């Protein structure tokens, strides 16, 4: 089904490009990376490969964020940023440029300067609230309480979680980390009753300096932690749903394919493709019997809303 959908996308894009006529110059695609981290490089490679498969010969130019201005893209060129820093710099320097952002959070995207409708979009690195709760309900059917600690800027996510929870018969308990309430006291508050701890991609709360304390506190409460990346699972979370750089790059390239065929950019949204990782050692230590990752992925996909 996915392969037939991809073939249809390529056919539509090529047909639209042909209909545009020979007088239309071929726009270029600029891939602007936030750095040389492995995730950025893998995303960029997937985008370039997918674009060449969809639209053979489309000019694709890779640029470091610090040298982007030297390239001076034309007004009809398309820019794809990879990572938060690249998105911030391009949005600030290249106002009015068609822009697709990827590998950034919804929170970071919302902090960008305003853009005209149809000129900018994004594939968030965050997972939709319903998908995260569906993972909990599918993998841990005997658990009904979900605990969340968050910062002030995660309000939209908390509202989405609260809206999605009733349909899955899950009870949500949240605590905000503020100047008056530390991360530790917030964790103690939400884990006072047996709960699953859902980590959110809020850098002010969950970061390299706090991850071990969060996991240790949760473990003392016998609370399984749902992470938001495979790194979190390796560190001690019981499982996570996330999108790989290749999955993010594939979706960004599909948006670019349609944009190059003259279609306006859609509203920013969550990744359509995802993966699941589990930590069987942590599961066993908590006396939890988890399905394998492939089984969980398949079950989650069956629950996804139809486009």
N-to-C terminal Cα separation, in Å? 13 Å
Class from secondary-structure proportions: alpha/beta
Low-confidence stretches: 16-24
Annotation, overall tally of beta strands: 11
Rg to the nearest angstrom? Answer: 21 Å
Mean pLDDT: 90
CATH superfamily of the largest domain: Response regulator
Shape: elongated
Quaternary state of this entry equals single chain
What's the helix-strand series? HEHEHEHEHEHEHEHEHEHEHEHH
Query: What is the CATH domain class of the largest domain?
Result: Alpha Beta
Largest sheet, if any?
6 strands, mixed
Stated plainly, the CATH topology of the largest domain is called Rossmann fold
* Helicity, as a percent range: 40-55%
The number of helices is 13
* Count of separate structural domains: 2
Strand order of the largest sheet: 7-6-8-9-10-11
Q: Tell me which CATH architecture of the largest domain applies here.
A: 3-Layer(aba) Sandwich
The share of residues in extended strands comes to 15-25%
């Amino acid at each position: 089904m996915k392969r037939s959908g991809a073939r249809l996308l390529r056919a539509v894009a090529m047909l639209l490009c042909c209909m545009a006529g020979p007088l239309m110059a071929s726009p270029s695609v600029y891939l602007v990376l936030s750095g040389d981290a492995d995730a950025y490089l893998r995303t960029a490679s997937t985008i370039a490969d997918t674009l060449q498969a969809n639209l053979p010969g489309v000019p694709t130019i890779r640029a470091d964020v610090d040298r982007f201005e030297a390239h001076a893209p034309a007004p009809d060129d398309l820019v794809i940023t990879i990572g938060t820093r690249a998105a911030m710099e391009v949005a600030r320097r290249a106002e009015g440029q068609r822009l697709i952002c990827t590998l950034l959070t919804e929170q970071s995207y919302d902090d960008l300067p305003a853009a005209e409708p149809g000129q900018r979009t994004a594939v968030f690195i965050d997972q939709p609230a319903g998908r995260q709760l569906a993972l909990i309900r599918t993998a841990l059917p005997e658990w009904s309480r979900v605990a969340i600690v968050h910062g002030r800027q995660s309000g939209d996510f908390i509202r989405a979680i609260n809206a999605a929870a009733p349909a899955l018969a899950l009870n949500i308990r949240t605590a905000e980390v503020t100047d008056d309430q530390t991360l530790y006291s917030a964790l103690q508050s939400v884990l006072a009753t047996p709960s699953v701890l859902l980590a959110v991609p809020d850098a002010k709360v969950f970061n390299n300096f706090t991850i071990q304390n969060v996991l240790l506190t949760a473990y003392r409460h016998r609370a399984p932690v749902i992470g938001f990346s495979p790194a979190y699972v390796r560190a001690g979370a019981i499982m996570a749903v996330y999108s790989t750089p290749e999955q993010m790059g594939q979706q960004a390239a599909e948006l670019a394919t349609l944009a190059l065929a003259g279609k306006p950019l859609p509203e920013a949204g969550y990744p359509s493709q995802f993966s699941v990782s589990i930590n069987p050692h942590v599961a066993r230590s908590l006396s939890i019997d988890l399905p394998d990752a492939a089984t969980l992925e398949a079950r989650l996909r069956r629950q996804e809303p139809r486009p």
